Amino acid sequence: MIARGAMLGPDQPVILHMLDIEAAAEALNGVKMELIDAAFPLLKDIVATTDVVEACMDVDIAIMVGGFGRKEGMERKDLVSRNVSIYKAQASALEKHAAQDCKVLVIANPANTNALILKEFAPSIPEKNITCLTRLDHNRALAQISERLDVHVSDVKNVIIWGNHSSTQYPDVNHATVTTSYGEKSVRELVADDHWLDMEFITTVQQRGAAIINARKQSSALSAASAACDHMRDWVLGTPKGTWVSMGVYSDGSYGIQPGLIYSFPVTCANGKWSIVQGLKIDKFSRVKMDATATELVEEKSLAYSCLD
Ligand SMILES: NC(=O)c1ccc[n+]([C@@H]2O[C@H](COP(=O)([O-])OP(=O)(O)OC[C@H]3O[C@@H](n4cnc5c(N)ncnc54)[C@H](O)[C@@H]3O)[C@@H](O)[C@H]2O)c1
């Protein structure tokens, strides 16, 4: 997708650096062969390596997919412990060798906490440059509304994913709208079923990752890759006017969320920078859910630190 221009646009040549562990070196080389064979006009060079320094050297964008993936029935605690040490090591390689203004997107789970570890162990990378992926959850929420209302997904906008990329995330439609032939209408008004929006919709989005793992016995792949392209494209090239997206970013205390956590907020992007959408009205129901997912992130943070000892 990156080599076809889905991430940075059809006019932006790219050099792909791909990192994997020694045990996967042969498979990595196979991916490199496929990339060569695809003859992508935008792909100017490929570096396929098991050396983290070579992989991080001068990169402008780092997409952190590597890690120990969640398997069916796996406890989040095991996942945290296996992944934080990887992110601590990769943080220092990025800090030392990546381009100065490198933008980082962490995808591997636990995504928010891996990003937090990366931020804490790469203190010279600006906090604003370290993000994690909740765009997949955002896109899932848009898709659920689109299916329910039988409208095209591109006509739905401004859902919000608050918090952790986990089952405590809060998919919020209170500010979401649909473009119709008679103007922009609120999702709540059009769905006209608060019970569905406050129960089934939320659970479906929260559990969608697990549902995909149940069905495929592997994490989402195509939709995750596409969401990663959406995340980086909007961050680098900007969000459309009047539209916000969800990104896991460090909290500056907005909406009462503990500063320093990597928490998913509604953001707009311009000139390569994101800003949290301010001033949205938060009702009691939302407040409880936003706080619950923040509490989980605080707990994950201390779990991550205990695994590093
Ligand atoms: N945030 C999201 O929305 C989202 C969506 C889908 C998947 N994920 C997560 O993304 C990650 C990747 O998922 P996947 O299905 O591609 O998993 P996968 O197991 O197929 O791939 C992980 C890759 O990472 C490599 N790897 C392991 N340790 C590494 C290290 N130390 N350095 C570099 N590479 C290393 C593995 O060899 C493997 O090639 C998982 O953690 C998954 O849970 C997140």
TrEMBL record:
Keywords: NAD, Oxidoreductase, Tricarboxylic acid cycle. It catalyses: (S)-malate + NAD(+) = oxaloacetate + NADH + H(+). The active site is at 165 (proton acceptor). Substrate binds at residues 70, 76, 109, 140. NAD(+) binds at residues 20, 83, 107-109. SUPFAM superfamilies: LDH C-terminal domain-like (SSF56327), NAD(P)-binding Rossmann-fold domains (SSF51735). GO terms for biological process: malate metabolic process; tricarboxylic acid cycle. Its EC number is 1.1.1.37. Residues 16-130 form the Lactate/malate dehydrogenase N-terminal domain. NCBIfam families: MalateDH-SF1, MDH_euk_cyt, PRK05442.1. Belongs to the LDH/MDH superfamily. MDH type 2 family. This is Malate dehydrogenase.
